[in-house]
Design brief:
CATH superfamily of the largest domain in chain B: Alpha-helical ferredoxin
Number of domains of chain B: 2
Largest sheet of chain A: none
Oligomer: heterodimer
Helix content of chain B: 25-40%
Largest interface: A-B, 46 and 49 residues
Distance between the termini of chain B: 61 Å
Order of helices and strands of chain B: EEHEEEEEHHHHHHH
Number of helices of chain A: 9
Structural class of chain B: alpha+beta
Distance between the termini of chain A: 70 Å
Number of helices of chain B: 8
Number of strands of chain B: 7
Chain lengths: 223, 247
């Protein structure tokens, strides 16, 4: 094995190397989530606009599949590395405290793994619902707008999306904040800005994504 | 003041241990937490019972020897304070106070509140030194160091190695300690010869000791008696990435 390969292996075998994987894959997924939301917000521009956007994405062909492969790789690495770290972290304290009073950790930092797993299941459901059209028929691959509106008009489906987006916000509130730390890109004087950025990203993505199921559900409520 | 202490009692490393209630009566508010334990232990000894074992040395907050998790917080509820500098006036009369040892796989309990923190020493053996020419002392001003860098190195070197960061971390991660120790050398000219080797060796020993990873909960920063900042962990990450890129 070449020296550079052993070097890389020994780096990624450390928890610091694994956290670097978490932050890079997390950053890739964060970029996707932002673009995904901006694209989807075109639902407010009406049926023609959203369906044209969907047709444009489908017309990308090979590029689309390359992009999907990258996303899948990032998701799998993020989940695998995250679980590896989680098991190691659990094992590092075999006897728990009788009392634990948090000083600085947050609900979101302490539940990253559970929030992440819930989001993983949501992504599978979301793909089955609006990409493959397997879970809530009828489904028309050429009419994304109608598929979305039909889905979000039902309280349980809209509710599931809203809940998942709250989980996403909580996951990102800690994820964005800790990403910079794992990348080694923090300094005391930027601490508050970093907290602010994490809050902004979490709130903007949650609010932006939730606005779609909520608006569609309300506008389609039986009067 | 009177308190009920709910204390972890464990005869030795092989004993499973359990929480036991002890009375702490007639405590003067200006007693330190350790002095309060001294009073309780004196009464236990007079009754012919085993006193509560706990580590302590300087009792002025600079040695890093003492420490216990009090009511769920390492070194108790006051920020930037060692257990010996925590005073009973910070509690309310009649309080039930839970006292537990540092909990980590890498810190096995030896007895009651005493744990083996040898893992932190082994991290230091791995890289906590610099290359110097022994013999006559070097001229103090031969190596100019900018004040902000000297201050930053001192901020890191303020770590007393008490292990509260490990105890408070939900993952029992030693990264705040490790990052302070790596940084205090990496920041100064004297630390440059072993800079890359040091961080690799210290991280390797830490990783092999059974500690967890840093999840950036920041609990360590919340309990550190010397106010070591979380950003040193970011510096540690940079140092390790840099060391691997250079080789």
């Amino acid at each position: 094995m070449a020296a550079s390969q052993t070097e890389a292996l020994s780096f990624f075998s450390t928890t610091i190397g694994k956290k670097l994987i978490m932050s890079i894959t997390g950053a890739i997924l964060l970029c996707f989530v932002i673009v995904h939301m901006l694209g989807n917000l075109q639902v407010f521009a009406g049926q023609a606009k959203l369906n044209a956007y969907a047709a444009f994405l489908q017309s990308l062909g090979g590029v689309l599949w390359a992009f999907r492969a990258l996303m899948l790789l990032a998701v799998l690495l993020h989940i695998y590395t995250g679980l590896t770290l989680w098991f190691q972290n659990r094992a590092s304290r075999p006897i728990r405290y009788h009392a634990f009073t948090p000083t600085k950790s947050t609900i979101s930092s302490r539940n990253m793994m559970l929030l992440g797993l819930a989001l993983g299941f949501f992504v599978v459901y979301h793909i089955l619902h609006l990409t493959l059209g397997k879970v809530h028929p009828p489904f028309d691959p050429a009419d994304v707008f109608t598929n979305v509106v039909r889905g979000f008009s039902q309280p349980l489906i809209a509710g599931a999306y809203v809940l998942a987006m709250i989980f996403l916000g909580l996951h990102l509130y800690h994820g964005v904040w800790s990403m910079f730390q794992s990348l080694g890109l923090t300094a005391d004087r930027f601490d508050r800005a970093r907290r602010g950025l994490a809050t902004l990203v979490a709130v903007a993505l949650t609010a932006g994504n939730i606005s779609m199921p909520v608006a569609i559900f309300i506008s389609n409520m039986p009067r | 003041m009177n308190f009920t202490l709910r204390v972890w009692r464990q005869k030795d490393a092989s004993d499973p241990g359990r929480m036991v209630d002890h009375r702490a009566d007639g405590i003067i508010p200006d007693m330190s937490f350790l002095e309060m334990l001294d009073v309780v232990n004196q009464k236990l000894i007079e009754k012919g019972e085993e006193p509560i074992a706990f580590d302590h040395d300087c009792r002025e907050g600079i040695c890093g020897c003492c420490g216990a998790v009090v009511n769920g917080t390492a070194h108790g509820p006051l920020p930037a304070t060692t257990l010996c500098q925590l005073y009973m006036r910070h509690f309310r009369d009649g309080d039930v106070i839970t006292i537990e040892p540092w909990r980590a796989k890498a810190f096995p309990v030896l007895r009651d509140l005493c744990v083996d923190r040898g893992a932190l020493d082994r991290i230091m053996y791995a890289g906590g030194y610099i290359t110097v020419r022994t013999g006559s002392a070097a001229e103090a001003n031969a190596i100019p160091i900018p004040k902000p860098i000297a201050d930053r190195a001192m901020d890191a070197a303020a770590c007393i190695g008490c292990g509260a960061c490990v105890a408070a971390c939900p993952n029992a991660s030693p990264m705040l300690f490790l990052s302070a120790k790596v940084s205090q050398y990496a920041l100064l000219p004297q630390g440059q010869p072993e800079r890359e080797l040091r961080v690799k060796k210290m991280v390797a020993v830490a990783e092999a000791s059974g500690f967890g990873a840093c999840s950036v909960h920041a609990e360590c920063e919340g309990v550190c008696p010397k106010n070591i900042k979380l950003t040193f962990i970011s510096k540690l990450n940079r140092e390790l990435i840099r060391a691997h890129l250079k080789s």
